[in-house]
From TrEMBL:
Biological pathway: Amino-acid biosynthesis; L-histidine biosynthesis; L-histidine from 5-phospho-alpha-D-ribose 1-diphosphate: step 4/9
Gene for this chain: hisA
Organism in which the protein naturally occurs: Collimonas rhizosphaerae
Keyword list, A-Z: Amino-acid biosynthesis, Cytoplasm, Histidine biosynthesis, Isomerase
Source taxonomy: Bacteria, Pseudomonadati, Pseudomonadota, Betaproteobacteria, Burkholderiales
MF (Gene Ontology): 1-(5-phosphoribosyl)-5-[(5-phosphoribosylamino)methylideneamino]imidazole-4-carboxamide isomerase activity
Protein's name according to its UniProt entry: 1-(5-phosphoribosyl)-5-[(5-phosphoribosylamino)methylideneamino] imidazole-4-carboxamide isomerase
């Protein structure tokens, strides 16, 4: 189970929102590159970026900050002899030219959210043009998908849409329970597992992580198809220590693999 720090960008700053409300933003850093370095030094192996202004405007609004983060990640990787540290970005991506530009800049994955729901043809084209690099972000409340920076609830069921997008060829699904995001009330395990069980591509959980118990709870169900969890307010406010939580997740993942290996051993009593 991978723990992925979230870096939410608003007006060039690193912030956290409460339940997607742009008026409830807490600024954590004025230097996005330094913020990225901080999480990498804490043991992060992947970063999750959100262009918050872009999500509301429908076009990229924090490209200088994104480029600063990519530069910091590359420098860290070279200094530490790491081959690749993937960086994924969502928010305001509505056309193929933007995707191509971001990938050329050095992003590993592009997350398409609102545009996937409103314009499935665009998502289909993106998955065809950039195979293996498109992730769909589904934000939901009570099983229904939300769009436009969470400001609108659609009538779409999460599972129905996720299956459709899986058929298009997206690499994975980032599933955010917007009733829990930024509230640190625990991940909606049941809904996340239900989604993961309905498809073959991996699910990345998001929204509600508070402490290491939430990480342990996710590790217990990771074999259902949950490969990672995005951590936001918890790591910024200190209720979750990223390094020790990732170490704990690695321990539990190793135990899970060992248990699998043991269960596949032939019974010693059998002839």
């Amino acid at each position: 189970m991978l723990l992925i720090p979230a870096i939410d960008l608003k007006d060039g700053h690193c912030v956290r929102l409460k339940q997607g409300d742009m008026d409830q933003a807490t600024v954590f850093s004025d230097d996005p590159g330094e913020m990225a370095r901080h999480w990498l030094m804490q043991g992060a192996r992947r970063l999750h970026l959100v262009d918050l202004n872009g999500a509301f405007a429908g076009k990229p609004k924090n490209e200088p900050a994104v480029k600063a983060i990519i530069k910091a990640v590359r420098e860290f990787a070279v200094l530490n002899g790491v081959e690749e540290i993937p960086v994924q970005l969502g928010g305001g991506i509505r056309d193929l030219d933007t995707i191509e530009r971001y990938l050329d800049d050095g992003l590993s994955y592009i997350i398409i959210g609102t545009a996937a729901v409103k314009n499935p043809g665009f998502l289909h084209d993106a998955c065809s043009a950039f195979p293996g690099q498109i992730i769909v972000g589904l934000d939901a409340k009570d099983g229904k998908v939300a769009t436009d920076g969470w400001s609108k609830l659609s009538g779409h069921e999460v599972i129905d849409l996720a299956k459709k997008f899986e058929d298009y060829g997206c690499a994975s699904i980032v599933y955010t329970d917007i009733g829990r995001d930024g509230m640190m009330g625990g991940v909606n395990i049941e809904a996340t597992v239900k989604l993961a069980q309905s498809m073959t591509i991996p699910v990345i959980a998001s929204g509600g992580v508070h402490n290491v118990k939430d990480v342990e709870a996710l590790c217990a169900v990771q074999d259902e198809g949950i490969e990672a969890v995005i951590c936001g307010r918890s790591i910024y406010e200190g209720t979750l220590d990223l390094r020790s939580a990732q170490e704990r997740a690695d321990e539990l993942s190793d135990e899970f693999v060992e248990d699998e290996d043991l269960s596949e051993q032939p019974d010693a009593d059998q002839p």
